[in-house]
Amino acid sequence: MSRGPAGVLWDMDGTVVDTELYYIESLTSIVAAHGGVLGEEDHHAVVGANLWDMATIAIRAGARRPAAEIVEEIVAEVALRLRDGIPWRPGALDLLAALRTSRVPTALVTMAFRSSAVEVVRGIPFPAFDVVVTGEDVSRGKPDPEAYLLAAALLGVDVAECVVIEDSPPGVAAGVAAGASVVAVPCYVDLPASEAYTTWDSLVGKDHAALVAEFRGRRSPDRPDSADRLPA
């Protein structure tokens, strides 16, 4: 059995940075300008969604603007707020640093545009990621596995030998569909218990050893969902 994951693939919003609320507030403002209101279901749908799906949500809620304009405004507002200061998720930077020390390849996999990802990567006080995949690099956003499959390919590793760290239902679904071991760390939306992934309350106190233990546990022959994913 492998000693540990060949790579760790990180979601960004809600996982590395606490920015899900930025998108919700931006959409709320856009919709309100046209007399509309985002409902609770809309708020949940925004979490982990790609930008074009967010624009669809805004239009459905009453925003009378082209989707491209809505996306452009969201991207600009989020980038501006990130330049004012980056709200890191608890434990994220410590775990990233531990992975760099252990020389584990890492990728940032986000449905945000590259401009937002660049702001986050620049704010990390060490070279945290070997690869960055954004919503502009794929034709299908999460929950489709395309972004995670691309990230693993760019790292030169088998996605089935990777751990994905996610916070949202679409992101978790994407990681599972890609065939990776998935650790869910919910932020704004609860995730139901499932044998398809592991849920952690927080990244605080988690290190490389914790991810190795999780990776090995997901591939234990005793797990009913692991037999078809064991390394040859």
From TrEMBL:
GO terms for molecular function: hydrolase activity. Keywords: Hydrolase. PANTHER family: 2-DEOXYGLUCOSE-6-PHOSPHATE PHOSPHATASE 2, PSEUDOURIDINE-5'-PHOSPHATASE. InterPro entries: HAD-like_sf, HAD-SF_hydro_IA, HAD_sf, PGP-like_dom2. It comes from the Bacteria. The keyword Hydrolase applies. This is HAD family hydrolase. CDD domains: HAD_BPGM-like (cd07505). It holds the Pfam family Hydrolase.
